[in-house]
Amino acid sequence: LGLGRCVAVSRDVAELAVEGGDADQHRGIGTLLLQRLAELARGRGLATFHADVESDNTDMIDVLVNSGFALHTNRDRDGYHVEFPIAETDRYARAMAARAWIALERRDTP
Length: 110
Fold this sequence. Notes:
Mean pLDDT: 88
Low-confidence stretches: none
Shape: globular
Helix content: 25-40%
Strand content: 25-35%
Radius of gyration: 14 Å
Largest sheet: 5 strands, mixed
Structural class: alpha+beta
Strand order of the largest sheet: 1-2-3-5-4
Distance between the termini: 22 Å
């Protein structure tokens, strides 16, 4: 289905990687992995994720943009370097609530 990992690169920063299987794209798995990794990382005292995303990986870009986290991005010739605090903010909570409603609607749709 998918694979997610975060590796601490300093006392409070971790490198993030999320992969979803091609057959399981667009089902919210990447979003759930990001959310769970953030929860686990916060519990271990980490405060920030950073990731490198290829320019053509629009699915991962969408996951990050819609995550509710405040993204700081830099673009280079290979893609985007993204860094963001993983604190549970009001914006993050609203994004999580919106995703929950979408999931309920999808569940109830034949």
